[in-house]
């Protein structure tokens, strides 16, 4: 299963709208990791995050896809299934 790094911030309105969808998918078994851009500065630099929300899909530890902006639950489900 791929891992999704979900770069987010408390002050980000689109992030707050999308977070409940991600939390629901986590409860259903999705491997989504929330990364707070204000506290995880090194990760933000390493992944060159320019805006939030940003979703990075990792397969075997390597980035295979990146998406920006608020997503619907269906769009997040599609990210989980990304090959």
Summarize the entry for a quick read.
The protein is an alpha+beta fold.
| Biggest sheet character | 4 strands, mixed
Q: How many domains in all?
A: 1
Q: Give the class from helix and strand content and strand pairing.
A: alpha+beta
The first-level CATH class is given as Alpha Beta
Name the CATH homologous superfamily.
Glutaredoxin
Q: Give helix % range.
A: 25-40%
The rounded distance between the terminal residues' Cα atoms is 10 Å
Q: Unreliable segments (pLDDT under 50, ≥5 consecutive)? A: none
* Rg from alpha-carbon coordinates: 12 Å
Multimeric state: single chain
In percent terms, what proportion of residues is strand? Answer: 25-35%
Which sequence of strands runs across the widest sheet? Answer: 2-1-3-4
Q: Determine the mean pLDDT.
A: 95
CATH topology: Glutaredoxin
Task: Write structural notes for this entry.
By secondary structure, the protein is α+β, with helices and mostly antiparallel strands. Helix content is 35%, strand content 29%. Strand 1, helix 1 (13-27) and strand 2 (32-36) form a beta-alpha-beta unit. It is globular, with a radius of gyration of 12 Å. A 4-stranded mixed beta sheet has the order 2-1-3-4, covered by helices on one side. It has one domain (3-80): Glutaredoxin (3-Layer(aba) Sandwich). It has helices at 13-27, 41-46, 73-80, and strands spanning 3-8, 32-36, 54-59, 62-68.
């Amino acid at each position: 299963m791929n891992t999704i790094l979900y770069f987010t911030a408390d002050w980000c309105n689109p992030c707050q709208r999308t977070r409940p969808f991600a939390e629901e998918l986590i409860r259903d078994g999705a491997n989504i990791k929330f990364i707070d851009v204000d506290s995880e500065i090194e990760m933000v630099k390493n992944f060159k995050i320019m805006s939030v929300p940003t979703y990075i899909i990792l397969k075997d530890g390597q980035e295979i896809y990146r998406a920006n902006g608020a997503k619907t639950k269906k769009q997040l489900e599609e990210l989980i299934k990304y090959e």
